[in-house]
Amino acid sequence: MTSQKPKSHSTPHRPSQGNRDFRNRNKRGGNSSGAQKNIPRGAPQPVIGNATAQPAIILKAGREKSLLRRHPWIFSGAVERVDGAPLSGATLAVRDAAGNFLAWAAYNASSQITARVWSWREDELIDAEFFHRRIADALEMRNALRFPLAQAGERGDETTLNNGMRLIHAESDGLPGLVVDRYGDTLVIQIGSAGAERWRDVIADILQELFIPACIYERSDSDSRAREGLETRNGVLRGTLPDSVEVVEHGLRFKVDVAAGQKTGFYLDQRDNRALTQTLAAGRDVLNCFCYTGGFSLYALRGGAQSVLSIDASGDALHIAAENMARNGLDSARAEWLEADVFQALRKLRDQGRTFDFIILDPPKFAPTAAFAEKAARGYKDINLLGFKLLRPGGLLATYSCSGGISAELFQKIVAGAALDAGVDAQVVHHLHAGADHPVLLSFPEGEYLKGLVLRVKAGN
Ligand code: SAH
After folding, report:
1. Where in the sequence is the domain holding 445, given as residue range(s)?
2. Hey, which of 9, 64, 70, 142 would disulfide with 147, CB 3.0 to 4.6 Å?
3. For 386-400, how does the pLDDT look when each residue is reduced to its tens digit (9 = 90+)?
């Protein structure tokens, strides 16, 4: 699928590979994307080195260790100096204090992450063909692993139908700052770094060539863009946006509001976990907190839940959720939708003496960075404690965290503390994470942002 020219070789003195300046754009951002994590605000800006030298990032002595382990971020605190007065988005050589080549990386003067690595190979040119290779690789990986999309409609079974997937998962697909989600023949692209911004049009052309979508829509309005000093963008990049965009997941149909919905419009990362929910729901009274457009609720209804109470603070999301229920011909008599703050609603349900057999907690990112971990931990403990109290003996709690600043281990500890305070004994029956179309680069643990547990509360403690 890729067409490669012979590689051009660089010398240790090769100049920077790009020069467009994005530093002066306005700095507003919107929803969070999860692309940038664990970044202390207010870290020092890189020291500007010799302006007439060849552009390069020179690290402080001993600060090359994480790069040698192939972690793709260069924090400002590790940088000794930046030579050559490069512009944000430029591709620069990164060198250790002795001048040895470490990587080619995209520079950003405005970010706490001074650079993000494109390539570890000194002889690799960062050009349109580089992006073609990386995007084609991401596609090949998903095809090779027979991701559900490849099985669409196999065996004539409606429930195997899927038309959505994450095509490009940023750092973990070797493309820092770039997320691309597919909903049928609409692609939604989210750019969260100055480096990816520099190649935006090239990337759009490659996506157009490889996927031939009806539309490429840009949702570059995440918080991480503000941190990178990039303007907010929301609009059609190629083609025409269809009147209605729909994602089909295991045969269930969901309307996707790509222009105004959260993230790129839908939470593809929970696909497998939603399918698991269906298998656990039969005959149960289900409470789905933070339901968005009804994902877990619709699966629970299809799985034969006795009743499903779904709560979200967004009226727009609930409106789409009700539409989605009708779209799938599911029994609305078993469903109740509540627009409310979950923290308050759980207390109200407790005070009313309501109980459930199966509770799902899938809150938004409480800790976008490690700096928020403590406050986030209190939030997770609160809702999980209330969740345990609302469960009947033998009931199930499916609880998630999509905070990059909270590790799976810490999350389990928080949930254990909540169970203890609620006075229940519980067993972990599933450890969960995002689906295979959200791979995690081994050298980039930050990529493992979504973690979940299904717990069974023991009867008769
Ligand atoms: N489970 C969903 C995704 C949840 S995203 C799915 O499978 O698609 C998190 C949701 O939490 C969003 O819909 C957001 O509107 C909602 N939310 C955020 N803070 C909230 C709060 N305090 N109370 C209720 N809902 C909240």
Report:
1. 267-457
2. 142
3. 999 999 999 999 999
Q: What's the total number of domains in the chain?
A: 2
User: If you measure from the C-alpha of residue 55 to the centroid of ligand 1, how many angstroms do you get, rounded to a whole number?
Assistant: 45
In this structure, the answer to whether residues 326 and 443 fall within a common structural domain is: yes
> Which CATH number do you get for residue 204?
3.30.750.80
> Which residue has the least CA distance to atom 15 on ligand 1?
314
Are 237 and 271 part of one and the same domain? no
In 3D, which of 47, 53, 54 has the Cα closest to residue 10? Answer: 54
Helix 295-302 vs helix 271-280: crossing angle, to nearest 10: 40
What whole-number distance in Å separates Cα of residue 159 and Cα of residue 152?
Answer: 9
Question: Taking a C-beta distance cutoff of 8 angstroms, is the pair 435, 268 a contact?
Answer: yes
Distance in angstroms (rounded) separating the CA atoms of residues 152 and 156: 9
Distances (CA, A) of 81 to 20, 245, 408, 448: 20, 47, 36, 31
Q: Parallel, antiparallel, or unpaired: how do β-strands 335-339 and 307-312 relate?
A: parallel
- To test the pocket of ligand 1, the residue of 256, 272, 289, 290 to mutate (highest count of ligand atoms within 8 Å of its CB) is 290
pLDDT of 296 higher than 90: yes
Average pLDDT over residues 248-254: 95
Active site residues: 402
The ligand 1 atom at the shortest distance from the C-alpha of residue 360 is 1
Cα distance between residue 165 and residue 213, in whole Å? 14
What is the CA(418)–ligand 1 centre distance, in A? 21
Higher pLDDT, 157 or 55: 55
- pLDDT of amino acid 40: 41
Distance 186 CA to ligand 1 centre (A): 24
Per residue in 3-48, pLDDT (tens digit) is: 333 333 333 334 455 443 332 333 322 333 333 334 444 445 667 7
**Which pLDDT does position 7 carry in this prediction?**
37
